[in-house]
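seq as requested:
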Amino acid sequence: QVQLVESGGGLVQPGGSLRLSCAASGRIVNAHSMAWFRQAPGKQRELAASITTGGITNYAYSVKGRFTISRDNAKNTVYLQMNSLKPEDTAVYYCNVLSQGLPWGQGTQVTVSS
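struct tokens:
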């Protein structure tokens, strides 16, 4: 069974940056559109960014211009570079195929606070 392992979260001040990684146990990254989702306390999980197998990216309006999603097919890994972080970016971040068809990993906590 494919497993997704997210890492790279932490506590950062507003305006700071973090780079999240999502390692897949199976060779799925090069075969599927991949995405990063996030879930803030008390809110539903939402799509933050996605990338197709052809490299076309799409972003939620709230993160556009600040976040960059990328993929390394050879490493079966998807990344999310997050710049100019805001307190409202605080959430648990998860990766999955865009269709959300794989079991969710444990996520990685991102906290933006001074």
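The two ends are 40 Å apart (CA to CA).
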